[in-house]
Every structure is written in C-alpha cells, then in structure tokens.
Amino acid sequence: MIDHSHIGAETEEVSIVVERSQLRLFCQATGETDPVFWDAGAARAAGHDRIPTPPTYPQTLLNLSPFAKNLVLDVIKVDLARMLHGEQTFEHHHPIFVGDTIRLKQTVADIYDKKGGALEFIVLETTARNQDDVVCCTLKSVAVVRN
In CATH, what number is assigned to the domain containing residue 108? Predict the structure, then answer.
C-alpha cells in the first residue's frame, strides 16, 4: 500500500516561458487549425492582446519543465511498470499567452485505493501561475497503480 503520509508532498517551483515556436509545434502535432493560436492578427481580431494557448497546452508546459524530483517515481517510489495514466483535467482561471512566464508547482493532493487495494490512485495537482502571480490553470492528473 502507498503510504498516505505522502499527501501534501510538493515539488519545487519551476518556470518556463511560453514560446511561439513551441506553441506552433503543439498546434501542428494536435491538428489545431484555429489561427488565433499562431497568428497575432487573428488573435487580435478575436480580442486578445497576444496569442493565447489552447486549453490543453499547460500539459506541454509541464512536460517541458520537469521537476528535480518526480513525486510519483522519486518520492512515492512507484514502480513504473505497474502504473497507468488514469485521468487528466484542466481548470482554467486566466488565459496563458505567448510571452508569459509560467511558474509550475505540483502537489500530491490525494491517495486512495479501490478493489481492496488492488488499485491505488495518486492524485497530482499542478498550479500554473503567470509572471503577475495570477493562477492561470490548475492541472489535475490521476496515476493508477496496479497491485
């Protein structure tokens, strides 16, 4: 069983600049065709001062700025061979724009089990704040551990 004392464990804060070229690659890879996400003129016509990012882009920012310690693998020490990705959600609070510096910090929000401990769940919450300390997005993911 996973030790529930890991609930509340946190990473250090990491920062990443939202780059236009990386956003363009994301749009190409995901098939995003709305020009508001790569063309400054289209973004302005849609009412934005700068180019915004699509709703799932915060996960890319998280992937591009790894923490020194991975909460699941390094802190909780889960065997990767027994782990599955179970769920991913995004709660948007404020737009993320090209040129923003996003600060990310992750927390173990919960650990619980089902089926008499045959499946354990690790809930990770990541807060994404911009350079003005405004919370832009809360990312939540659930890792499933098969016992």
Answer: 3.10.129.10
Q: What is the radius of gyration, based on Cα positions, of the chain?
A: 17
Instruction: Inform me whether the pLDDT recorded for 2 exceeds 90.
Output: yes
3-state secondary structure of 53: coil
102: how many CB neighbours lie within 10 A of its CB? 23
Query: What residues contact 119, with CB distance under 8 A and at least 6 apart?
Result: 113, 144, 145, 146, 147
In the numeric block, the tokens 């016509």 are attached to: 45
Q: Check if the beta carbon of residue 129 is closer than 8 Å to that of residue 135.
A: yes
DSSP state of 52: B
User: Structural domain of residue 87, as residue ranges?
Assistant: 4-146
Q: What angle do CA 79, 26, 103 make, to 5 degrees?
A: 65
Handedness of CA 131, 133, 138, 142 (dihedral sign): positive
Among all chains, which residue has been given the structure tokens 């045959």?
A: 118
Which residue has tokens 């990443």? Answer: 16
How many domains are contained in the chain? 1
DSSP three-state, residue 130? coil
66 has a pLDDT exceeding 90: no
What does pTM read for this prediction?
0.92
